[in-house]
Request: fold
Amino acid sequence: MGDKPFPVSDLLLQFDPSSELPIYLQLYEQLRAAIVNDCRIPRCAKLPSTRSLSETLRISRNTVIAAFEQLLAEGYLEGRIGSGTYVAHALPESCLGARPQASAPGYGRPPARISARGRRMKQMMPSTNITHVVPAPSKPRAFRLHAPSFEAFPYDAWRKMSLRTWERIRPEMLGYGCPAGWQPLREAVAHYLRAARAVRCDWQQVIITSGAKQAMHLVAQSMTDPGDPVFIENPSYSGIRIAFTLSGAEMLPVPVDHEGLDIAAAEQMCPEGRLVYVTPSHQYPLGATMSLNRRLALLDWARRRDGFIIEDDYDSEFRYRGHPVASLQGLDREDRVLYIGTFSKVLMPSLRLGYMVVPPDLVDTFIAARAHYDWSSPIIEQATLAEFMSEGHFARFIRRNRALYAERQEILLDAGKRHLRGLVDLQPKDCGMHLLGWLPKGFDDRDCAALLYENGVEALALSQFASAPSDPGGLLLGYAPFDARTIEAGAEKMAAVLERQVALYR
Reply:
């Protein structure tokens, strides 16, 4: 090629200042592609000096130097003392020819070998057309579940508590922290649970987690060995099924009726079972509240069998009719209940903070398990939440949202009567943030959920929470984040989609 530099400017390189990719990496990738993919820059070609190239491209010389250094380090270029920078005379054989697009899984190599556990995790992830595997739209669409009302969030109070946390920052708050959580938050959670949920605990029994799902995985890994039988509600929250599947436990689905899970039926199914998962305050997803007789029978079973009860106190904060139902843990006198709660669905999902209350003799076990997962949750957020709770903002927020969500449930029921009659049978519930709507007999709820998603409406199929499809099927409709206009429009759109399904079934 001689000493005349290759005219890099002829390549019509382009840079996007708004891209998340730094300019030097944009230059690096374009030069590498020109060398490798289509040989627009021949091997052994001399490149312009970094100074002249920066002037030609109108970018910083340091940017060009950074791109050249990366290419030199990877062997695409080679420097010759006193002469300049050249394309390497011999590129690795694997670099020659066209490179697949970055979006192609595995870059064309054979499928990666993953573990059996990895395959199970992938298989258990719900399909992307009706869940949030792909990034969900920033504004929830009717009728997305598990989302609180963001417009009702007390932004000013949270901002004030956050600033106060930073004003009082201490060196120990910048470290990893205790795996069990920030002590002031553990104390605030214990105080709240004693007052609001009749939980019997002191702060040393409270362990802060990254949401309820992590607590479930801690229980599954700490309390079961492969093959151990575990009773779970049927239908039940998919997160608990995933946790026990990955631990290797044998799950035994127990049907749920209007009184909740029947432990007598479970014991007949498997007398050896010694662990059970329940959502007694608001059964997920059916919405039943476990009766007192069933609660007492469950505690008696745990005492007799030397067993334990996992109480997921799902949606217990939002009860709209009658007196609040005390926790199952509050009735326990034998230290047989592992209590789980979360702030994600109450305050904001991005907070990623939850908690569990464990019997005193299991505290050390669960602190060790928590440390093995990710050591601890971020301390600044824990400290801010502790201030938020101790100042009374959390309790006031719950009271305000309880009234708001009760109103929105009524709005959804009214919209259902006007638009969904004969299509979805919605019944009022005493608590929670969603309603279950039963479909006409013969309808496939998963097909309906997929069609609704494609048409801008989000609803989860009841059958995805059950061990086997049910007939009739059902759809879970969240209402907490939505105002009257959004609920009305969602019901109209939902009716249009389901009416087309009715025509197909005729």
Summary: The first strand starts at residue 77 and ends at 80. Residues 393-419 form the longest helix (27 residues).
